[in-house]
């Protein structure tokens, strides 16, 4: 497959979702054949089918419907098992939203049937994430509602699905704009029912913490009883720095943010794990749900991309493991910036995706620093011959990024390092030169080493201070390109950091084509999304890789034991995964092709 530019990749396959996260839309071209260490998974026609998965059933509801997450719930012998599939925005349809939750009878796995749709929130909302539990005398469906257009509803919708063929709306609780992106519904041993939900970017916008605790013991009258915010309720440090997180956008990697994304209840609803993107997975004690208390967290290093999207909890041999899904949006991984002015500090950087040759393809680049100030004039680069040109960019600079980069590559500088101004770190979305500059950069910028780092880390300030008295050297060290994959953390033997336990990474799984070591932007997204466990097996939805089965009998060394990717036009977009432990079935929701019902076989079986 031909390499795409980052701009073309973004325009073809992505749209920025209303919750501040990315929603994958369809690509017009077929996926390239997979190769590498798992070529046995490829069929002769070049399309992946099933490897240790038996396809039992499939239900697609047409091109107008784009599917979100999937949840399995068995209503008992009188009613039977059903799959609840959320729907997300369809940017290719004139009516993009308002498709409701699809309730599917899966009592006969080979013949799944649409039984009903839970809707009623209008045509301008998404119903992406869903959860079902028995609350009091009723089976209750909880749905995260996100607005697709300004002023549309956003919040929590609750439905009575005691008879799933006739869902009945019980209540709606409004939340700040953007709405609930992910949630979990749990009924505790004390019979209190809680919805644990995320409203990403709430804290940045001054509307409360991103993590919400909503009591739904009386589902006709839900009440928000607490919210937790990483800025207000913690003193956690930024990655790669010794100062406290004071801006939700002070993250790392291509999507630099500390937003809350996923919630997972544990310990009968006495604990919740909040996937807090670049801040890792946060563990909260909610034994008193009105007063959540920070217990521990997972962490990232400056060499990682961050993006803790969701987590599954796995207990084995007296130890708890956190299976952390890192949903990375770009294959370009962060370089590390060091200099004679900053000593031993490693500053997190960002590869400049608009350059035709990424730093990861060039290698470690070192040189003397030349201060080009804001790089808005050609004369700013006079005297930069053979050096690394340092210049500022951002909203307070009086020229555009594209012009700065063109001037840098047309100078005699060896390469360049951009200092991103402001309280945030640079992010993929803000950094697109205009079309004219992009054309010049693609022609003339081949082989030019470059990177970007942030003003908040103080690197540029330190370099400029030392330049006043003598020369400064800087080194830009690329890390291995990668998309998101599974990391395993152990809660055994944590490190205590000022009263917060830090859990150590003990394993990972990334051994799939395109996931690690490939800097190309491809037509398809080869990153992990969600994971569920059954017995000693983990089943992950992995977008273009479909459903991936892992043997986690040794959690520190997950092993690939099965894989399923549906036949679709273009790459698969497997969003959700759910499990039926009684029948040992796996349910997968593909954004475009609908619900798939699978039986893992051989080593892939639980």
Protein model, in words:
With about 600 residues, the protein is mostly beta strands. It has a domain at about 335-475: Glucose Oxidase, domain 1. Helix content is about 5%, strand content about 40%. It contains five helices and 39 strands. Strands 18-19-20-21-32-31-23-22 form an eight-stranded mixed sheet, with no helix packed on it. It has a seven-stranded mixed sheet with strand order 25-24-30-26-27-28-29, sandwiched between helices. A five-stranded antiparallel sheet has the order 3-36-35-34-33, with no helix packed on it. β34 (about 535-540) and β35 (about 545-550) form a beta hairpin. α3 packs parallel to α4. The longest helix is centred in the last third of the chain and has 10 residues, at about 400-410. It is globular. The chain starts with 5 loop residues before the first helix and ends in a 6-residue tail after the last strand. The model is unreliable at about 10-45 (pLDDT under 50).
Which features would summarize this protein structure in a list?
7-stranded mixed beta sheet, 606 residues, single chain, 5 helices, mainly beta, 7% helix
Amino- and carboxy-terminal Cα gap: 36 Å
Biggest sheet overview: 8 strands, mixed
Strand-residue proportion: 35-45%
Low-confidence stretches: 11-46
CATH architecture of one domain: 3-Layer(bba) Sandwich
Morphology: globular
Radius of gyration: 24 Å
CATH topology of one domain, what is it called? Answer: Glucose Oxidase, domain 1
Mean pLDDT: 91
With helices defined by DSSP (H or I, 4 residues minimum), what is the helix count? 5
Structural class: mainly beta
Helical residue percent band: under 10%
CATH class of one domain: Alpha Beta
Largest sheet, order of strands side by side?
18-19-20-21-32-31-23-22
* Number of strand elements: 39
């Amino acid at each position: 497959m031909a390499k795409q530019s980052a701009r073309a990749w973004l325009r073809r396959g992505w749209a920025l979702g209303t919750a501040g996260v990315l929603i994958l839309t369809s690509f017009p071209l077929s996926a390239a054949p997979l190769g590498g260490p798992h070529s046995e998974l490829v069929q002769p026609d070049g399309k992946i089918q099933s490897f240790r998965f038996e396809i039992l059933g499939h239900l697609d509801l047409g091109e107008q419907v784009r599917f979100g997450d999937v949840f399995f719930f068995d209503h008992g012998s009188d009613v039977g098992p059903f799959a609840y599939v959320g729907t997300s925005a369809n940017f290719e349809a004139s009516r993009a939203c308002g498709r409701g939750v699809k309730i599917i009878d899966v009592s006969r796995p080979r013949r799944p049937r649409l039984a009903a749709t839970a809707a009623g929130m209008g045509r301008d909302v998404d119903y992406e994430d869903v959860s079902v539990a028995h609350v009091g005398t009723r089976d209750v469906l909880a749905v995260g509602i996100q607005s697709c257009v300004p002023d549309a509803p956003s919040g929590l919708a609750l439905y009575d699905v005691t008879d799933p063929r006739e869902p009945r709306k019980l209540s709606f609780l409004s939340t700040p704009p953007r709405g609930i992106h992910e949630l979990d519904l749990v009924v505790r041993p004390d019979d209190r029912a809680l919805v644990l939900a995320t409203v990403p970017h709430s804290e940045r916008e001054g509307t409360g913490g991103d993590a919400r605790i909503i009591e739904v013991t009386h589902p006709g009258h839900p009440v928000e009883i607490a919210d937790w915010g990483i800025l207000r309720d913690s003193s956690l440090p930024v990655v790669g720095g010794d100062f406290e997180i004071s801006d939700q956008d002070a993250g790392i990697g291509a999507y630099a943010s500390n937003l809350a994304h996923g919630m997972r209840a544990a310990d009968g609803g006495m604990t919740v794990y909040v996937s807090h993107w670049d801040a890792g997975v946060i563990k909260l004690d909610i034994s008193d749900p009105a007063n959540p208390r920070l217990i521990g967290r997972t962490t990232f290093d400056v060499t990682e991309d961050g993006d803790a999207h969701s987590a599954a909890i796995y207990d084995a041999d007296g130890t708890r493991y956190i299976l952390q899904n890192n949903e990375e949006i770009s294959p370009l991984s962060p370089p590390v910036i060091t200099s004679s002015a900053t000593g031993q500090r490693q500053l997190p950087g960002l590869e400049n995706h608009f350059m035709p040759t990424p730093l990861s393809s060039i290698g470690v680049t070192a040189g003397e620093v030349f201060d080009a100030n804001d790089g808005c004039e050609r004369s700013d680069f006079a005297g930069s011959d053979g050096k690394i040109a340092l210049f500022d960019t951002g909203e307070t600079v009086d020229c555009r990024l594209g012009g700065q980069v063109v001037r840098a590559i047309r100078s005699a500088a060896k390469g360049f390092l951009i200092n991103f101004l402001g309280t945030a770190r640079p992010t993929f979305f803000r950094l697109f030169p205009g079309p004219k500059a992009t054309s010049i950069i693609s022609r003339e910028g081949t082989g030019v080493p470059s990177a970007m780092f942030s003003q908040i880390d103080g690197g540029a300030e330190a370099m400029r201070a030392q330049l006043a008295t003598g020369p400064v050297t800087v080194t830009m060290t690329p890390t291995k390109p990668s998309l998101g994959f599974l990391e395993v953390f152990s809660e055994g033997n944590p490190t205590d950091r000022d009263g917060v336990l830090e859990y150590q990474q003990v394993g990972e799984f990334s051994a799939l084509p395109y996931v690690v070591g490939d800097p190309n932007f491809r037509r398809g997204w080869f990153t992990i999304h969600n994971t569920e466990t059954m017995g000693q097996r983990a089943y992950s939805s992995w977008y273009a890789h479909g459903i991936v089965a892992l043997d986690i009998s040794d959690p520190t060394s997950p092993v690939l034991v099965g894989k399923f990717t549906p036949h679709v036009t273009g790459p698969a977009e497997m969003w959700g995964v759910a499990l039926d432990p009684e029948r040992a079935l796996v349910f997968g929701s593909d954004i475009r092709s609908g619900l798939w019902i699978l039986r893992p076989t051989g080593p892939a079986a639980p």
